[in-house]
Amino acid sequence: MTKETRAILIDITKCIGCQQCSAACKTAHNQPGDPEPTLAAAAFTAVEPRGEKFVRRMCLHCEDPACASVCPVGGIKKTAQGAVRYDGSKCIGCRYCMIACPYSVPKYQWTKLAPYVTKCDMCAEKVLGGGQPACVEACPTGASTFGTREALLLEARKRIVENPGVYVNRIYGENELGGTSVLYISDVAFEKLGFIEPPAQQPLPTLSAAALAEVPTVVAIGGSVLAGLYWITERRKQVALVEAAQREPKERS
Amino acid sequence: MPNIKSFLTPWRIITGLIFTAGAVATYMRFVLGWHAATNLSDGQPWGIWVGVSTLCGVGLSAGGFAIAAAVYLLGMERYRPISRAAVVIAFLGYTTVCAGYAWELGLPWNFWHPIFMWNRASVLFEVVWCIMLYTTVLALEFSPALIEKLPWQKMRQTLLTWQHRVLIGLVLIGVLLSSLHQSFLGGLFIIFKGKVYPLWYSQYQTTQFYLSALPAGLAMVIIAMYLSMRSLNAKLDPKLLGELSRVITPLLVIFGLFRFVDLLRQHAGEYLFMARPETFYFWLEIALFIVVPLVLFNMKRVNATPIGLYWASAVTVMGFIAHRVNVSITSLERATGTHYVPKWSELAVTIMLISAAVIAFRLAVLHLKIFPRTEARNAWLVNEAAAAD
After folding, report:
1. How far apart are CA A239 and CA A209, in angstroms?
2. What three-state secondary structure class fits B41?
């Protein structure tokens, strides 16, 4: 994480479910149709009603994303500015990223004959040009704000402290699975709003990394053992040959 | 004159139906699209083309490296008569897996991307590379069967000499590559922590996949040997089947112990008897893959006859498939809230690919030196040719 890592802070207490964000997102990404109830191949953000609350779903732009780690062709990358971006020109369509994402964010264009994975790119081009993501720009209540991750963490902490008894004392995304670049604060417990409890203390890619780290050991030890076994086998054959040759004259006599 | 009735044997009719269905399914997949051809969805993006075609195709080919290691590295000469067959089975298995990606990948024309676009952090990247390299190794291990057919004696000699020189190296590399990717197929699921049902999650899924592939791969060799002896007049000592099966028992015990100790270690014990569909699928897997095979392989009445060993092996393979389907499909359904049942067209493609591999194996046994064969089949062929005149 660098200083300029950008992030989005979503304050669930301020969201009124007006759908401006999802509409703006669709316009920004040239996707047809009305806002959709859940994330879909052509809906990178969706506002889900949860009881009396509205929860805006989108890619959380993990600091150490599982999707990027599993992609066999390196088609998904965490950029220095914070966004986790998908490069369709590399994609082979294995769909490993879709299952690996702990938040089940990436979707697939099942209806197309040349389908790509789709997900939020935090309006990376716009942000590079100095702008804000379309969803944040469209938010009329300030439920979504954009800035550096560092500043937004401070802001979130400030809101929690300055409004005692309002917020749950947790910034979802601060540390979850290594942290994310989309942060949530809420006045209702996160598990009641459909947020997953992180299945691990550390970022998920560290789990595969631990398994992959065994490769050199397996190759070195396995190779030596196999070569050793082969040597023993050959040696036995030679000994057997020599012994047979020694036995032969005796048997003749 | 050959008449239509003698041409249309039941097996030929079934094969024809399989390939017709496969062709229709292929049309649906490539022309009508994913929704028409599959029941895959955002919740269940991997179906049986991954769970069966890839995971089982690779696993059931494990006999190739196991037998090659036994014969060439451990000097177990008694298995030499079947070493070539084991390599052919593995080679065809891997070729089928690779061919299957034409259907499975969303953008199959980009299949070559992993060769140039690397991501060393991806378990799938390692698997893809190992499979590419190992398929090449298998082709080289299998090459003498083809080289022998060359009409030019000198070239034949030179090539065979070269092949012989590198053979041990090939076998050794093959064992290493196999050990890596057989394990890493299980490693694919480690990062799904939190999504995988506890009965199938393990940080040692790598070890589990390796330990399960060995008995299943050997069972597959027994099946292929039995069928070759019965239908293709392979001249093999039936005792070999029994010897192989005696290796399967300890392998299954080791896998079973590892599986249960691992479950208890991860505190998944409470899930063993919950009233949930997963529990049923779990015990079905355990019964088919561990309990029933262990009983059958150790029953005198079963293990004394080739047909008994054949059926015991068939159950083992079924159980193995149940295990892999559970790991890749059943285990994810609760977390993703999706219920996936393959569409007929998904099954049709998988069955077509398996049939193609079986036909290729049959042709290899008939036309190349894979097994020593008796004359009976030749005599039968002569009779048929005479009848045709």
Report:
1. 46
2. coil
Q: What is the pLDDT of residue A134?
A: 96
* B176 interaction partners in chain A (CB closer than 8 Å): 218-219, 222-223, 226
Q: How far is B358 from chain A, CA to nearest CA, in Å?
A: 27
Nearest to B47 by CA among B288, B343, B280: B343
Count of alpha carbons within 13 angstroms of residue B214, beta-carbon side: 24
User: What b/e readout covers B201-235, taking b as 16+ CB neighbours within 10 angstroms?
Assistant: bbbbbbbbbbbbbbbbbbbbbbbbbbbbbeebbbe
Other beta carbons less than 10 A from residue B340's beta carbon: 22
Distance CA(B185)–CA(B58), nearest Å, equals: 9
Pairing of strands A6-11, A46-50: unpaired
Distance of alpha carbon B264 from the chain centroid:
29
**Interval A160-176 mean pLDDT:** 95
pLDDT tens per residue across span A220-240: 999 999 999 999 999 999 999
A226 to chain B: which residues are within 8 Å by CB? 69, 73, 172, 175-176
Q: In whole angstroms, what is the distance from residue B273 CA to residue A96 CA?
A: 31
DSSP per-residue codes, A32-97: -SS--SS-BTTBS-EEEEETTEEEEE----BSS-HHHHH-TT--EEE-TTS-EEE-TTT-----HH
Q: List the helix and strand counts (H, then E) for chain B.
A: 19, 0
* Residue of chain A with shortest Cα separation from B40: A110
pLDDT in tens, B68-101: 999 999 999 999 999 999 999 999 999 999 999 9
Q: Which of B75, B107, B124 lies nearest to residue A91, judging by beta carbons? A: B107
Domains of chain B: 16-372 (1.20.1630.10)
Q: Are B194 and B331 in contact (CB under 8 A)?
A: no
- B231-240: per-residue pLDDT in tens? 888 888 888 9
The pair of structure tokens assigned to B37 is 């051809």
> In chain B, which residue's Cα lies nearest the Cα of A113?
B33
- Tell me the pTM: 0.92
Token pair of B29 as six digits? 């997949």
